Amino acid sequence: MAPIREIPAHIRVMVHNDITTVSDVERRSYDFPWSHGVFRDCLLAGYHCTVVERVDQVVGYGILSVAAGEAHILNLCVDPMYRVLGYGELLLDELLRVSECEAVAEIFLEVRPSNEIAIGLYLKKGFRNIANRPAYYQATGGREDAVVFSKVMKKTR
């Protein structure tokens, strides 16, 4: 199969009609994916839900929760066919921009230690490893730890 060419993409707000496509990307990406209902609940809860589109096709998404001056990246995913083309970085930059607009002091996320590409991106964007959560993720044959990252945001005042 020929590699996918990088094509300019844009970020937009996720809407209810995106949930089926986003759920499909999630299922192609993870052995233990979020359900359709979890994405619906994120929209209903008012989380910052974004998608990245290329040629009118959703190829990734990000979910950000903001409360009490902190933000938490709950999910950031790019379809396996479109990885390493910069779409994950585009999504992360958008979530960081939203965090700045919301005057967030610190942003947090968890990632599987086996996800070296994501870890490299988070380190590039100034996140630092602050903790380990044992047996956080469901995994084939048991549980997998999570690495907790945080980024202190610039003061906007």
Question: Would you spell out the secondary-structure blueprint of this structure?
Answer:
Blueprint lengths: L9 E4 L5 H11 L6 H10 L2 E7 L2 E11 L2 E9 L8 H15 L4 E6 L4 H9 L3 E12 L2 E11 L5
Parallel strand pairs: 4-5
Antiparallel strand pairs: 1-2, 2-3, 3-4, 5-7, 6-7
Describe this structure in words.
By secondary structure, the chain is of the alpha+beta class. It has a single domain, classed as 3-Layer(aba) Sandwich (Aminopeptidase), CATH 3.40.630. It is built from four helices and seven strands. It has a seven-stranded mixed beta sheet with strand order 1-2-3-4-5-7-6, sandwiched between helices. The radius of gyration is 15 Å and the shape is globular. It starts with 9 loop residues before the first strand and ends in a 5-residue tail after the last strand.
Supply the key terms:
157 residues, alpha+beta, seven-stranded mixed sheet
* Topology-level CATH name: Aminopeptidase
* Beta fraction: 35-45%
Helical fraction: 25-40%
Sequence of secondary-structure elements: EHHEEEHEHEE
Low-confidence stretches: none
Identify the strand order in the major beta sheet.
1-2-3-4-5-7-6
Biggest sheet, open or closed, and with what strands and sense?
Answer: 7 strands, mixed
Structural class: alpha+beta
Described by the principal axes of the CA atoms, the overall outline is globular
Tell me the number of strands. Answer: 7
